[in-house]
Design a protein that fits this description.
By secondary structure, this protein is mainly alpha-helical. The protein has a domain of 269 residues: A middle domain of Talin 1, CATH 1.20.1420. Helices cover 79% and strands 3% of the residues. The chain is built from 14 helices and four strands. The chain has a two-stranded antiparallel sheet with strand order 1-4. Strands 2-3 form a two-stranded antiparallel sheet.
């Protein structure tokens, strides 16, 4: 009597993929990247041809930030499905994986700046975190535009309204308080030479996202229609996740080293062009960390997986501000200089704009998506053209 049940269980597992099915890069691509990695480390350890090492570092680092992130995303999404989580929760977990490069890149850069007593590198590390949040907002606008193509609007997932709106409000207030602290330090009667954000306050930011994740994971997951579906076996999901995290770590190390080469050899050339080398380096790192979001969210939106795409990007913004910046700030004190303060208040304003768009009618339309895109383009223009050297 039990044999048919076993057969049914085997048939239920037959549609699940293995690890090889998710290694989307072909043999030629792997061969080319492996060759470039060998050349990169050979030139790097010899200490010659810094321009070639810099270019190879960005190529290899971005590849390692992108491909392994895809593996980690698939592994975490399947894990969410096996655990019975909702599609929105799966989107949040995939966002965590795709934001992992930014966390590793910024963390390594911040640590290197602290160890080497390099204020520029420390500024770049923190700025790249906040700039990556800006890229996520930009991608959210693009996702809304794609999702509303041929439709008047798109429905915001209920979980975004219930839990994310509360966390967004909390994050806005936290960022405004952080900005106010920095302003008071700068304009006070005896301003500190180098104002920093307290480590205990960074821990509170980090803790707030942990509590949010717990609330989301323990929420109502009984709605079978909204449950995430696993696409890999449990073992394959674990292997993909581990492979992804290993690749992401090497991406962070390589990209951070490339920025250090840039600062050491070419910052004077950039400044001679009238551009701030700190903001340019931070934009490069922020873009490299946010690259995985491009394919993940936009492809999901194009396939009609709006819950996954919106959960990925909204969760990504909050993760970057609370989890990544808070996590870094617990170990390396965040500088509260004019670069960081500008980005902090910009992110707070962007989140307020997003919250109003979500809670006004529980829908997002083409116009709101276009305005989110325009807002982020405007912010990036201010950052590049309006930041003094």
């Amino acid at each position: 009597m039990e044999e048919p049940e076993i057969d049914n269980m085997n048939s239920d597992q037959s549609h699940l993929h293995g690890v090889k099915d998710s290694l989307v890069a072909g043999k030629k691509e792997f061969a080319v990247i492996f060759g470039l990695i060998i050349v990169y480390f050979y030139l790097r350890f010899l200490g010659i041809e810094p321009i070639l090492v810099l270019l190879l570092g960005f190529v290899v680092g971005i590849w390692l930030a992108f491909r392994p992130s895809e593996w980690a995303v698939e592994g975490l999404e399947s894990t969410a499905g096996h655990l019975g989580y909702t599609a929105y929760m799966a989107g949040m977990l995939s966002s965590l994986a795709s934001n992992m490069p930014e966390a590793v890149i910024s963390g390594i850069a911040a640590y290197s700046g602290w160890i080497n007593e390099s204020p520029d590198l420390l500024d770049i590390a923190v700025l790249s975190v906040l700039i990556a949040a800006g890229f996520n907002m930009l991608l959210l606008g693009l996702t809304i535009v794609i999702s509303t193509k041929g439709a008047p609007d798109m429905q915001v997932p209920e979980e975004a309204i219930k839990k994310d709106s509360v966390l967004i409000r909390w994050t806005i207030v936290a960022l405004i308080c952080m900005f106010a602290l920095g302003i008071l330090d700068l304009v006070g009667p005896a301003p500190p030479i180098d104002p920093k954000f307290p480590a205990i306050a960074a821990f509170v930011l980090f803790l707030s996202y942990i509590i949010y994740t717990w609330a989301l994971a323990t929420g109502d997951v009984t709605d079978s229609e909204n449950k995430a579906k696993p696409f890999h076996r449990k073992r394959s999901a674990l292997i993909l996740t581990l492979l992804g995290f290993v690749g992401i770590f090497f991406a962070g190390e390589i990209l951070t080293n490339s920025v250090e080469i840039f600062l050491h050899n070419y910052s004077g050339t950039i400044m001679a062009l009238g551009i701030n080398h700190v903001t340019i380096a931070a934009l490069i790192l922020g873009a490299a960390g946010a690259l995985p979001e491009h394919g993940i969210a936009l492809i999901a939106a194009a396939k009609g997986k709006v819950g996954l795409a919106v959960g990925n990007l909204i969760g990504g913004v909050l993760q970057i501000v609370l989890l990544v910046m808070g996590g870094i700030g617990m170990f390396v004190l965040i500088p509260l200089d004019r670069y960081v303060l500008f980005q902090i208040i910009v992110i707070a304003g962007s989140l307020w704009f997003l919250k109003r768009a979500i809670t006004d009618d529980h829908k997002l339309d083409f116009f709101e998506g276009a305005m989110i895109i325009l807002l982020q383009v405007y912010v990036f223009v201010l950052l590049i053209a309006g930041t003094p050297i």
